Amino acid sequence: MTPDRRSVLAAGLALMAAPVAAAQGAPRLRRLSPALDRMIAPGTEPEVIATGIRWAEGPVWVPRGGYLLFSDPPANLVRRWQRGRGLSVVLNPSGAPGTDPKLVREPGANGLSLDAGGALLIANSGGRSLDRVDLGTGRRIVLADRYAGKRFNSPNDMHVARDGAIWFTDPPYGFQDGDRSPLREQPVNGVYRRRPDGRIDLIDGELTKPNGIAMSPDERKLYVSVSDEAAPRIMVYDVDTHGQVSGRRVLLDARAMLAAGGAGLPDGMKVARDGTLVCAVPGGMMLMTPDAEPLGLIEQGSPIANCAFGEGGRALFLAANDRILRVALRPGWQG
Asked: Could you give all domains of the chain from N- to C-terminal order, each with its CATH number?
């Protein structure tokens, strides 16, 4: 896609993504392409399945138990939603206990994922680390908390590759004063990879506010969202067979969407098995092709931070401000 065409697409999408109301309302799915119908049946609308959350984040579906876990970073909780049982608290605290609210804005867990053995992986914003929690015993260990001898800022989101490597972002969002926080030790807001042997690689130290992160199904593309109000965008990188990254470029420029009044910024994302991207953007959660062709937009008049596929590919769950949404997917379609 040429830069000119990408700009035209972003500007056109900004008009479609302009909020229908200033305040949060009933969620809806706006179809932007007939191609969306293979994934979501016409007439399908998001349903609200959980409310009363301070700020929903990091959803992950746990197949072995058949439930959804999601974090609430400012409340320092990880909650579970299970059909027929509603909400319950799984981790309290989910991140770091006893933090100073004058210095720490988000003491809890943020992004969540699972490793190959089914253990919960946590981007621990308040604890400034990557953690692993055994969901059976509750045993918790720190996988990484430093790069080059200095503590991370506040790990935000992650992607677990097939080889066990954890790709993750480390913006300053957990700090009350952001980049100016006296707690900050890292000179950059980095994109990192934790190798299976525990070594940490700095993948990109030039992004202002890296946030969501995901990989293509073949793991040859890395996607990173940038939640910078001055330059909101989604980046894409080429990844070779050795995990080396090159060819950084803008996949989606979200400035026009933000200028049009869309709530939120580029945030969490997931990639379906067919390569469809589901990305938080100003205005809601956008579904788009790997070339940034818009397919649909889930909106509610307030930010939607993150998402996860679940129920064996039959549902898309969204962490949507103070609630959790569920969108039914077509039977047989695999997310």
From this structure: 3-26+54-264 (2.120.10.30)
